[in-house]
Amino acid sequence: MELKNLRTFQAVVDQGSYQKAAEYLGYTQSTITVQIQQLEEELGIPLFERTGRRMVLTQVGEQALSQARELLALAVRETWGLSPLPEIARREGGKPYFPRHEELHFNLSHSGALALCALDSGPVGADVQIIKEWRPGLPERVCSPAELAWLEEQPGLWPAFTLLWTLKEARAKESGRGLASSIRDIRIPLPGPGLLEMDGLWFRTWTGPGWAAAACGRGGPPEEILWRRI
Fold first, then answer.
1. Strand, helix or coil at 57?
2. What is the CATH number of the domain that holds 23?
3. 160-217: per-residue pLDDT in tens?
4. Which of 124, 40, 45 is nearest to 79 (CA)?
5. CA distance 18 to 47
6. How many domains does the chain divide into?
């Protein structure tokens, strides 16, 4: 899930229309439309509907946003003992943070019925994706030669590609800069067991029936995900 698309999503929620969100972000309205469509495609749900001149969240869009917030509130309470959930703001690149607790870092991702939350004492990025068949030719556009060679060795194209995608998203989100450069140029270690390291950052991947996830940070991500039902 691309950070720029999440930033656009938040802008539409806050501004109430694609046009105002485009003016706020300095984008064209067609760019806003495309990014929201990409986000809806990844999540598998319609996020907005038009009411008069305003774009408002659909019921499932509200549920998706609420689910992610509830997960974050639960994780923050269990890990850091903070309740209620602290105020959330967004940095220039769109990455959310706690302005009154800047020493505490978090990251959220949502796909389908799954939400993933990562907490750390330093910058952290996390991404979860429902495995699906992506657009034809996408791997060639976003993968490096080494990543494409690794893909060719895997028994299933789309599960393997989804794993690479989550690693790239996690690193982009850790940096807070989003996908400012070419996706192909985002450096990640090739997936493998245990902790992975590159450029002073630690990575870990997880997989399950129909999904893949990854996290990236200066501290080693845990071996297992702590599951909670929201």
1. strand
2. 1.10.10.10
3. 999 999 999 899 889 887 555 678 899 999 999 999 999 999 999 999 999 999 999 9
4. 124
5. 13
6. 2
Q: How many residues does the chain have?
A: 230
Do both 49 and 117 map to the same domain?
A: no
Give the distance from CA 37 to its chain's centroid: 15
Angle at 90 between CA 86 and CA 96, to 5 degrees: 60
Dist. CA 201–CA 39, nearest whole Å: 27
**CA–CA separation, 171 and 194 (whole Å):** 17
Rounded distance between C-alpha atoms, residue 176 and residue 129, angstroms = 19
> 150-162: string of b/e by CB count within 10 Å (b at 16+)?
bbeeeeeebebbb
Look up the pTM and report it.
0.79
Domain region containing 13? 3-57
Distance in angstroms between the alpha carbons of the first and the last residue of the chain: 21
